[in-house]
Amino acid sequence: MTGFDPDEWQDTVREPQPHDNVPVAVTYLQALKCSALVDAYVQGHLGYEDDVRMVALFWRAVAARTVHGPHMVMRPSVEDAWAQIDAAPWPLSGPPRPQPDA
Predict the structure, then answer these.
(1) What is the pLDDT of residue 102?
(2) Burial level of 74, CB count in 10 A (0-12/13-18/19+)?
(3) Are 55 and 48 in contact (CB under 8 A)?
(4) Secondary structure of the chain: what % helix, strand, coil (to 5)?
(5) Is the pTM of this model over 0.90?
């Protein structure tokens, strides 16, 4: 993004796109797990950083498949990204607990 004026960039990415209102298909569990991981990371559970990155890749792959169909090749695929997200432990709610001094 170097060389872009920040305001110009925002204007560009906010331009309506043909597929902006096309719904994507994810399960309730997928939506819930993704939101739990992102929320935990935002609350300060930094151990979920890699999982949050995978959530972003999962959503990108879901969006690409929705618009371009199953022949769209994404790495990781929707299935591979979800497998990694699904394998992540469910985070506890709230901020991290204070750690005892070592």
Answers:
(1) 62
(2) middle
(3) no
(4) 55, 0, 45
(5) no
